[in-house]
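[job 4471] stage=fold_predict status=RUNNING
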Amino acid sequence: MSQSTCPLCGGCRDSPPLELHHSRYQFCPVCLSFQRLAGISDDVQSHDFRLTYGAKRMIQNAAQDRHALWTEVMGHLSILKDSHEKPRLLDVGCGYGDFLISAQGTGWSVSGIEINPTMQDACRKKGIEVLTKPLRDLTPPFVKFHTVTYLNVLDSIPDPLEEVRLASQWICPGGRILIRIPNGALHGMTIWHLPRVPLLWSRYLKLEATPLNAWIFHPVGIRSLLESAGFSKIKVYRSVPVSGSPFTRRVVRIIESFGRILSGTHPLSTSVIVEGEWTPPDTVPNT
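[job 4471] inference complete, writing structure tokens
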């Protein structure tokens, strides 16, 4: 049986890959996260994101229904904002710029990174400064940001550890990274058990046929990732559901409440928000 090392936590992954209809996943028993081994490649990601993703009507409609999420994220960042006269925020994968507009309205100086042309145009029309290359192709600025955000973006990046390390070069000492991702404590369990429910499984396969997610992060895995990149004071919160009808959202909240009883320390919400503080290795704490 072949073995591999988990890029998130360094653990030994010695179980055979989980074979699904469109993809193969490798599970790590240490950080409880899944990595997609097949069905995901730089070519697929590049083609979809750069050429078609931003123009899809489904994506455009979903972006209109995220005001609750923007409010939630701003709540997490309020203390950081209030402690600086001119707080600066960078949103990686900023989409159509709606979150940055919301942040700007609360006093943040905002910038974004977006590689999709349709979304870049939307940002420019809203007056948002947008960089059009991924972090690995950009030079970190002299003036750093107080926070860098990844809202449903980091799980689509093939090498998230490299990405987060690059992001730290854009954050000032004492600043934060804030990440929102699908919750692997729930979605990982779904991958294992959905094949037993044919109706739900067939619906999941339609989503899986578009391989945008390179990772399914369990809270343990995303914590290990941030610690490996040098972040501290890491916290994981459940995140509000932002799509579906009011009835669907109510059902989701009931499931989440039941999940918190079963899962103990890990929230069983559909998504989680994770934040960590950046302190450069050569920074000497004040005494």
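[job 4471] summary: Residues 63 and 98 are 8 Å apart (CA to CA).
[job 4471] exit 0
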